[in-house]
Design brief:
Layout (H helix, E strand, L loop, with lengths): L5 E3 L11 H11 L6 E3 L5 H15 L3 E7 L16 H11 L5 E7 L11 H13 L3 E6 L5 H16 L6 H10 L25 E6 H7 L3 H4 L5 H14 L12
Parallel strand pairs: 3-4
Antiparallel strand pairs: 1-2, 4-6, 5-6
Helix pairs in contact: 1-5, 2-3, 5-6
Length: 254
């Protein structure tokens, strides 16, 4: 095993009380599903790409799907705000240069990143541009009564029970959306300072071609040679500081 890949099993030990990868591994095992969860530490593009390449070779993988809980990964760089793009864009850059037959990016939780300043009219504008380029592959909803939605809500509830002091705000909202919840739904004290807007759009996957998405990112070249996460953060900030014409945010017209 390379240094930057951890194979987490249901019985993997750690001194850290927050260990969501093991929580997920244990839930998968309880469902009699494959229960190894591979995890990466915070990295820059170069070591993360090496870690992905190792897994591709070891597991004989022919498809990579990057899943973003939110819409940060769909932003190209000139939007009014980028939210929290560091991990998303690092993964995008790392996988973009790998030779894999199928490479996709899917976004689940539309609207969640409004809390971090993302303007979702600009997200829709980006999806339209990807559609013109042949890179938008469509949307898929998760019906609340489906087996998949039920399993998802169970996994989220299991994770919340395992770490009650730090439940995922993103997953909690998506899970609520799949159950038909709407509006300012409260499920943790962590969201006490803002107004949530849980709605059915949060339970939809928006899927795009990874390479076409990467080609539209205006600052992907800036982070290409990074080694650590701090470098990625610094170079994204430098790009934003130099940006002269950020797109003006717009409100939904209806």
């Amino acid at each position: 095993m390379v240094d930057d890949v951890a194979a987490v099993q249901p019985d993997t030990t750690s001194p850290d009380w927050y260990f969501p990868e093991r929580t997920l591994a244990r839930w998968l095992a309880a469902q009699e599903l494959p229960s190894t969860v591979y995890a990466f530490p915070p990295l820059g593009v170069q070591p993360l790409r090496a870690a992905y390449r190792y897994l591709l070779e070891q597991l004989d993988i022919d498809a990579v799907v990057l899943v973003d809980g939110g819409t940060d990964v769909l932003l190209r760089g000139d939007e009014s705000d980028l939210g929290t793009p560091v991990e998303d864009i690092t993964s995008l850059a790392a996988v973009a240069a790998l030779d894999v037959p199928v490479k996709l990016v899917t976004s689940l939780g539309f609207g969640i990143d409004a809390y971090d300043g993302v303007n979702h009219v600009q997200v829709l504008e980006n999806l339209a541009a990807l559609d013109r380029d042949g890179g938008y592959l469509g949307a898929l909803s998760i019906p609340g009564s489906s087996r998949e939605a039920g399993l998802y809500r169970d996994a989220v509830a299991d994770a919340q029970a395992a770490t009650p002091d730090r439940p995922s705000i993103v997953q909690g909202q998506i899970a609520a959306a799949t159950s038909g919840a709407f509006g300012d739904v409260r499920f943790t004290r962590r969201t006490g300072g803002g107004d949530l807007f849980v709605n059915p759009l949060m339970a939809m996957y928006f899927t795009v071609d990874l390479d076409k998405l990467a080609a539209r990112c205006l600052y992907l070249d800036r982070i290409e040679n990074t080694i650590g996460r701090r470098q990625v953060i610094t170079r994204i900030q430098a790009f934003r500081d130099e940006l002269l014409n950020a797109r003006i945010p717009r409100a939904f017209p209806h």
